[in-house]
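G., the chain you wanted modeled:
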Amino acid sequence: MNHFHLVVETPQPNLAAGMKWCLGTYTQRFNRRHRHWGHLFGGRYKAQIIDERSPGYLRCACDYVHLNPVRAGLVGVGEKLESFQWSSYPAYLRPKLRPRWLRIDRLLGEHGLGDTARARRELHRIMEQAPLKPGEATLVRRSWKIGAEDFRDWLADKLARRGRRGERASERCETDTVLAERLVLEALAKVGWREVDLAIQPKGHKCKVEIAQLLRAETPMTHQWIADRLRMGSASHVSNLLLTFKSEL
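Predicted structure as tokens:
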């Protein structure tokens, strides 16, 4: 085996640095343990951007990764998918196996499921009986993106603002924060709220969700920043609220 699959979400634009550390550190430790040397993986990692605006694309990517052991022949005939231990899929079915960094709510939400014993049995049934739809495997393997037809244009619009010559990353981050703060204040004024109302109103209030959706569409602010700024609890709670908001639309 000379490669692996990951579905990750990065709060900062540091994927390249993270992958360099991960691949380099793992290779060094593997070679030291097994007394090997040289390259371990087949080449530089390939990154694909997942369209988070519409439901279905995250599920497509995650299902592709979870079903890959079957396609690769690593799970034998008659064996269950969860028998493959080098996968996050068994942790979806058995909470005790979950590491702290694993997000299970996003994928379960894409399938319309919660984190209950009954929902986990339903996920098992879905994965056993409903492999990737025709064309989805090709979409994941060959494209630089996993998303709708207008995803390219949406990304271009979102990334349209260029930094000034010599602008440092910290300055760009500050500028983005200023933009996000302005949008929050304008939205609060529009609904007649004061800062104190953010603490008084429920975490999942419709107005908060609408402001959060605006921030995700217009700025690169993370779910955690939005959760803290709008008093919406945790980043995962914001993510789930936005997913429900989009599905209702």
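The CA atoms of residues 52 and 58 lie 7 Å apart.

Shout if anything looks off.
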